[in-house]
Design goal:
- This protein is mainly alpha-helical.
- The protein is 61% helix and 0% strand.
- It contains 3 helices and no strands.
C-alpha cells in the first residue's frame, strides 16, 4: 500500500476532512489554525516535537496579538455618545 503513488493525496484528503469536521467543536473551530498546524507537521517531516513547540509559540503570539490589538483599539477609539431613545422632547415619528 505504501507503493501506491496517490497514498499521500488520500492521507491529506482524510486529514483535511477531519479538520473541517472538528470545526463544529468550539475549542477547535479555527480552521486556518488547523491547516497551518498540519502544514507545519508535514513541513517538519512529520516530527512531533518541532511541530508542538512551533504551535505553542504560535498560540502564544496569537494570544498576545489579540491582547495588544484590543488595548490599542481602546486607546485610539473615542467612546461614542449615543442619544437617549426615550427623550421626551423628541416626538415619536410613525412610518
Amino acid at each position: 500500500m505504501a507503493d501506491f503513488p496517490g497514498m499521500l493525496a488520500i492521507g491529506v484528503s482524510v486529514a483535511a476532512l477531519a479538520m473541517c469536521l472538528q470545526a463544529g467543536w468550539a475549542p477547535l473551530s479555527f480552521i486556518p489554525g488547523a491547516f497551518a498546524g498540519t502544514a507545519v507537521f508535514f513541513g517538519a517531516q512529520l516530527s512531533f516535537w518541532p511541530t508542538t513547540v512551533s504551535l505553542i509559540i504560535g498560540t502564544g503570539l496569537g494570544w498576545l496579538s489579540a491582547l495588544l490589538g484590543d488595548r490599542i483599539q481602546t486607546l485610539v477609539s473615542k467612546p461614542r455618545r449615543v442619544p437617549p431613545t426615550d427623550d421626551p422632547s423628541r416626538p415619536v415619528r410613525t412610518a
